[in-house]
Amino acid sequence: MKKTAEKVTAVIELKITPAKDTGFAKIAERVAKFPEVDACFLMSGAYDLLVFVTGNSLQDVAHFVSAELSTIDGVLSTATHFMLKTYKAKGLLAEFGRDKRLPIV
Q1: How confident is the model over 67-79, as pLDDT tens digits?
Q2: Is 11 exposed, middle or buried (0-12, 13-18, 19+ CB in 10 A)?
Q3: In which order are the strands placed within the sheet that holds 8-16?
Q4: pLDDT tens across 15-63, in order?
Q5: Is this model's pTM higher than 0.70 or not?
Q6: How many Å apart are CA 66 and CA 73, to the nearest integer?
Q7: Four-point Cα dihedral 68, 69, 75, 80, nearest 10
Q8: Are 24 and 18 in contact (CB under 8 A)?
Q9: Domains plus CATH for the chain?
Q10: Residue ranges of the alpha helices (H) in the chain?
Protein backbone atom coordinates (compact mmCIF):
# COMPACT_ATOMS: atom_id res chain seq x y z
CA MET A 1 0.00 0.00 0.00
CA LYS A 2 1.32 3.44 -0.98
CA LYS A 3 1.85 5.88 1.90
CA THR A 4 0.24 9.28 1.36
CA ALA A 5 2.50 12.24 1.92
CA GLU A 6 1.69 14.46 4.85
CA LYS A 7 0.97 18.10 4.15
CA VAL A 8 3.14 20.90 5.50
CA THR A 9 1.53 23.76 7.43
CA ALA A 10 3.06 27.18 7.93
CA VAL A 11 2.06 30.36 9.69
CA ILE A 12 3.10 33.48 7.83
CA GLU A 13 3.25 36.98 9.27
CA LEU A 14 2.78 39.79 6.78
CA LYS A 15 3.55 43.46 7.31
CA ILE A 16 1.54 45.49 4.83
CA THR A 17 0.88 49.10 3.93
CA PRO A 18 -2.81 49.91 4.26
CA ALA A 19 -4.47 51.50 1.24
CA LYS A 20 -5.88 55.00 1.62
CA ASP A 21 -9.53 54.06 0.95
CA THR A 22 -9.72 50.36 1.89
CA GLY A 23 -7.16 50.00 4.70
CA PHE A 24 -5.96 46.42 5.02
CA ALA A 25 -9.04 44.87 3.39
CA LYS A 26 -7.90 44.92 -0.26
CA ILE A 27 -4.66 43.05 0.38
CA ALA A 28 -6.26 40.72 2.95
CA GLU A 29 -9.00 39.73 0.48
CA ARG A 30 -6.41 39.09 -2.24
CA VAL A 31 -4.31 36.93 0.09
CA ALA A 32 -7.36 35.02 1.34
CA LYS A 33 -8.35 34.00 -2.21
CA PHE A 34 -5.24 31.86 -2.80
CA PRO A 35 -6.11 28.13 -2.60
CA GLU A 36 -3.01 27.53 -0.45
CA VAL A 37 -4.38 29.85 2.25
CA ASP A 38 -6.43 28.08 4.93
CA ALA A 39 -7.02 31.17 7.09
CA CYS A 40 -6.17 34.87 7.11
CA PHE A 41 -6.52 37.21 10.12
CA LEU A 42 -6.00 40.94 10.68
CA MET A 43 -3.84 41.24 13.81
CA SER A 44 -2.71 43.86 16.27
CA GLY A 45 0.95 44.04 17.19
CA ALA A 46 4.17 43.74 15.22
CA TYR A 47 2.60 42.49 11.97
CA ASP A 48 -0.71 43.07 10.22
CA LEU A 49 -1.89 39.77 8.74
CA LEU A 50 -1.51 36.24 10.09
CA VAL A 51 -1.88 33.67 7.31
CA PHE A 52 -2.13 29.87 7.66
CA VAL A 53 -0.90 28.02 4.55
CA THR A 54 -0.83 24.35 3.58
CA GLY A 55 1.48 22.86 0.95
CA ASN A 56 2.89 19.54 -0.19
CA SER A 57 6.42 20.36 1.00
CA LEU A 58 8.54 23.02 2.70
CA GLN A 59 9.75 24.02 -0.75
CA ASP A 60 6.18 24.45 -2.05
CA VAL A 61 5.29 26.78 0.81
CA ALA A 62 8.55 28.72 0.45
CA HIS A 63 7.89 29.13 -3.29
CA PHE A 64 4.34 30.30 -2.60
CA VAL A 65 5.61 32.93 -0.16
CA SER A 66 8.37 34.20 -2.44
CA ALA A 67 6.46 34.06 -5.74
CA GLU A 68 2.94 35.02 -4.65
CA LEU A 69 2.71 36.70 -1.24
CA SER A 70 5.90 38.77 -1.19
CA THR A 71 5.27 40.15 -4.69
CA ILE A 72 1.90 41.72 -3.84
CA ASP A 73 2.03 45.52 -3.92
CA GLY A 74 1.78 46.77 -0.35
CA VAL A 75 3.39 43.71 1.27
CA LEU A 76 6.44 45.07 3.08
CA SER A 77 7.78 41.84 4.63
CA THR A 78 6.95 38.25 5.46
CA ALA A 79 8.07 35.87 8.20
CA THR A 80 7.34 32.17 7.73
CA HIS A 81 7.08 29.70 10.60
CA PHE A 82 6.72 25.99 9.77
CA MET A 83 4.71 23.80 12.12
CA LEU A 84 6.93 20.84 12.96
CA LYS A 85 4.84 18.87 15.42
CA THR A 86 1.30 19.12 16.78
CA TYR A 87 0.63 18.72 20.50
CA LYS A 88 -2.91 20.07 20.50
CA ALA A 89 -5.19 21.28 17.72
CA LYS A 90 -8.84 22.33 17.63
CA GLY A 91 -9.15 21.51 21.33
CA LEU A 92 -7.87 17.94 20.95
CA LEU A 93 -4.61 16.61 22.31
CA ALA A 94 -2.38 14.86 19.79
CA GLU A 95 -1.24 11.28 20.25
CA PHE A 96 1.82 11.08 22.46
CA GLY A 97 4.49 8.42 22.48
CA ARG A 98 4.82 8.13 18.73
CA ASP A 99 7.58 10.06 16.97
CA LYS A 100 6.00 11.90 14.04
CA ARG A 101 8.84 14.20 13.08
CA LEU A 102 9.00 15.50 9.55
CA PRO A 103 11.41 13.56 7.33
CA ILE A 104 14.52 15.45 6.26
CA VAL A 105 14.56 15.78 2.49
Answers
A1: 999 999 999 999 9
A2: middle
A3: 37-42, 49-55, 8-16, 75-82
A4: 999 988 999 999 999 999 999 999 999 999 999 999 999 999 999 999 9
A5: yes
A6: 13
A7: -140
A8: yes
A9: 8-84 (3.30.70.920)
A10: 25-32, 58-64
